[in-house]
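Quick sanity check, Helix-turn-helix domain-containing protein:
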Amino acid sequence: MSNYLISNHTFLVDRIVFTRRLKGLTGDRLKLYLFMCRVVSVDPNNRYFMSYQHANKELNISEHKYRSALKWLEQNFFIRKTGNVGRANAYQVLFLPVFDGSTYHSRAQIKRDRNTFKQGGYGYVEMPIELLKGSILSNHSVWKDLRIMTLGLLYLYF
């Protein structure tokens, strides 16, 4: 019997996320961004609209940290607020912004999908959705940024 799990569902993350070149995308911000990438993989418009209570089941962070991470991701063009779905705010995960060493610059005009990544020559990591369920995002004592980055790089080269 094999110890491997074959996934039928994957999600995309720009490979730059795992290189540590994006200043500020660490800790709760990194975990929330990866969680959002996983969640939007089933929505053709790359929309994320989970309440804090629902997201906290996977992220295990305070509401203040959650809202702070959302605000940072929005201010730095990783996501864009698009309205509301029920009582939750809806966000669109955008094509990764360009970081020039001090400032992030939006590339929201580029569609974030598998075809764009391939046709444009942009590198991405395709990860199984099961990978980021449970302890990887919620266990803050074991799953620090370095381990998450290493795991992403392993999938990049896998």
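Posting the structure with no commentary besides this: The chain has a mean pLDDT of 88.
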